[in-house]
Give the backbone structure.
Amino acid sequence: MNTSKLLVLLLAVLALPGFARAADVARPQPPPYRLQPGDVLQVSVWKEQDLQADVLVRPDGGVSFPLIGDVPAAGKSVEELRQEFIDRLRPYVPKPVVTVAIRQIGGNKIYVVGKVNRPGEYPFVRPLDVMQALSLAGGTTSYAALNDIVILRRDNGDDSEAIRFRYPEVERGKELAQNIVLRSGDTVVVP
C-alpha cells in the first residue's frame, strides 16, 4: 500500500464517530466551578411556573427558593446544588425536573494592590495566574519591589497565608511554579 493510500485510510479511521484520540482521553478535565457569594443562578422546575426564579448566592453562602427555603450553596458545584433542590422538592413535586444555571458569576474576584498602574478588584471566569493578574492591573510601576510581591490567601475563614512571588525570576523563565493559579479572594500585594 502506498503512502497516500495509507494516509487516507488513517484519516478515515480518525474521523469515525466515537473514535477517541489519545490526546482527548489523556487531557484532564478541570474541576467543576464552585458557587460563591455574589453568583446569580437561574433555577427552574419543569412544568411549575411558580418555581422559576433568579437567585443570588448571599454573603453567608446560602440561597432561598420557594417551598424549600434556605439552602447552602457556596462551595457546591451546580450539579450538587441541583441534586439538593431535587431532594428537597420531592415531598412537594412528584419527580421534579430541576435546572440550575449560572446567570452571572459575581463571586470570582481577585485584588491587586500596591505599586501597579491600575490597582483594584478584578472579576474572572477562567483560571488566572499571578502574571495574568499583574497584567490586568496594567503592570507594575517603576518603584515596585519586584522581589517582594506577596499573594495573600485566606482559607476557611480566618486561616491565611502569604505566598512569595519573585517577578524577575518568572520573567526570566525560572522558578515558574511560583506563578500559581489564583483563587477567588486572593490579594496580590506589590510593595
